Amino acid sequence: QVQLVESGGGSVQAGGSLRLSCAASGTTYSYGCMGWFRQAPGKEREGVATIFTDAGRAYINDSVKDRFTISQDYAKKTLFLQMNSLKPEDTAMYYCAARRGGCIGLPHYSVMQYWGKGTLVTITS
Q1: Contact 66, 82 (CB under 8 A)
Q2: Which of 32, 70, 102, 120 has the fewest CB atoms inside 10 Å of its own CB, making it the most exposed?
Q3: For 22-64, what is each residue's pLDDT tens digit?
């Protein structure tokens, strides 16, 4: 049973920072694609950043690439998303997701196999 548990969400003012974490269990983590997706009210879920776990190769959505960084602690099966210079438009539920097999680029959310319950990020102006 694969479990993904996110933490680190919250409410911050515009310009602030947050660091999201995702702890994975029940999976080997190796040769996997781990990523962060977000969904704002009334909008489709979109990929924010993904990482091919074994290669350590990261992919970032162009809309956040200068502000967000994805990283991992491979040994601890933990994924991170460092978010800086946050904007009100970053307000969304952020989900950790995983799929077996690597990833090249940002996959569509529909191909991800496992999901966390999400953590809410609210940016106030």
Answers
A1: no
A2: 120
A3: 999 987 677 789 999 999 999 999 999 999 988 889 999 999 9
Distance CA 55, CA 93 (A): 27
What is the DSSP secondary-structure string of 96-121?
EEEEES--SS---GGG--EE---EEE
In sign, the C-alpha dihedral spanning 76, 93, 83, 123 is: negative
Residue written as token pair 């946050």: 86
The model's confidence at residue 12, banded by pLDDT at 50, 70 and 90, is: very high
What would the pLDDT profile of 75-97 be if each residue is shown by its tens digit?
999 999 999 999 999 999 999 99
Please give the C-alpha separations between residue 20 and each of 1, 65, 75, 113, 114, in angstroms, as whole numbers. Answer: 22, 16, 18, 20, 17
Q: Which pairing describes strands 32-39 and 57-60: parallel, antiparallel, or unpaired?
A: unpaired
